[in-house]
Amino acid sequence: QVQLVESGGGLVQPGGSLRLSCAASINMFNMRPWTWYRQAPGKQRDMVASMRIDGNIVYADSVKGRFIISRDNAKNTAYLQMNSLKPEDTAVYYCNTFPRASWGQGTQVTVSS
Description:
The protein is mainly β.
C-alpha cells in the first residue's frame, strides 16, 4: 500500500526557512513526478512546486525564487526547501505523485512573529 509521510513543518518567523520532507513507500519512485501542495484554512489545495519526470520544475508564482523542490531517489524522498517565508505561506503542506496516491497527513507550516 502506498504511503506518503510529510514532515519538517513547524512555527517559523517571517523571513525564516524550513525544509519539508516527503517519504514515499511506493514503487518506481524515481520514475514518477512529485508535487508539493498546500492548503490554508478555508481555501482549496493548491500546487506549490512540481518536479516532472523529464526533470522540468514548475513553481507557483507566489513561491518562485523562494522555494526549491528536489528529490533523493535513493531515499524515496522528495523535499521542499522553503526560504524567505511569509505569513501567507502558512498552510498544511502535502506531497503527491501521478497517478495520485492517497494523501498523507500533511505537515503544518506556520509563519508568524
